[in-house]
Amino acid sequence: MFIRTTAPPGTNIRRLLLALSLILLTLAAGAEAWAHNVAEGDRGYIQESSGVLFWPFVYLGAKHMVTGYDHLLFLFGVIFFLYRMKDIGLYVTLFAIGHSTTMLFGVLTGISANAYIIDAIIGLSVVYKALDNLGAYQRWFGVQPNTKAATLIFGFFHGFGLATKIIEFEIASDGLIPNLLAFNLGVEIGQLLALGAILILMGYWRRTPSFMRHAFAANVLLMTAGFVLVGYQLGGFAIS
Fold first, then answer.
1. What confidence tens digit (pLDDT) does each residue in 93-106 have?
2. Could you tell me if residue 5 is inside a domain?
3. Domain range spanning residue 56?
4. What domain count does the chain have?
5. SS3 string of 113-177?
6. Tens-place pLDDT, residues 5-48
7. Could you tell me the pTM of the whole model?
8. How far apart are CA 103 and CA 6, in angstroms?
9. Range name among 153-167, 184-198, 208-222 with the lowest pLDDT average
10. Is residue 6 part of a domain?
11. Is residue 2 part of a domain?
12. Is residue 3 a part of any domain in this protein?
């Protein structure tokens, strides 16, 4: 659905959009610090740990999700025009299935890829969803991509990006599978917590007249953040 702004935004809305744009661009500019990297303290813990450590890995998984803004930007785009909890649950489940599958598969098989390329694709997932929300594909090409399939496929890339980072840490084989399952459980818990916060904020915004007026601008900002992520990661790949 393509949305046009029909009225000039008020002062508060302009400030809100400006603040949101600065936040998104600042986060995107720090992509290597957060996107799929793990904090140095957590990295050391993973490398030095051995045996089954269920709850610590649940915590690490949850922490990764709530600080992994690339995941959150994509989820924000996915649920932007979803109003029924049934639909939200379906799309989030598809994303979780994709994310979990490739994370576990990548680590257990040792298959990895260049982290910059994977993270650039993840940035493209944000761009894709913003353009979808703007109705660009129908307008430009006369077709509508299968949004469920796209959510699942991009979930695969999100999970593979995390697997690539975990492999670099050479996690101990002793207790590997239980720890990975615990980490994945933590990721899903973190996703639900982050999603709950997003839905609360979206719920308040949707009840105001400004939502439909400024949905266009919000998705343009989302697309901009995605392009910045892509550019940052491709730049990192070029000089690495």
1. 999 999 899 999 99
2. no
3. 11-239
4. 1
5. CCHHHHHHHHHHHHHHHHHHHCCHHHHHHCCCCCHHHHHHHHHHHHHHHHHHHHHHCCCCCCCHH
6. 444 444 545 555 555 555 555 544 444 444 455 565 666 677 77
7. 0.81
8. 44
9. 153-167
10. no
11. no
12. no
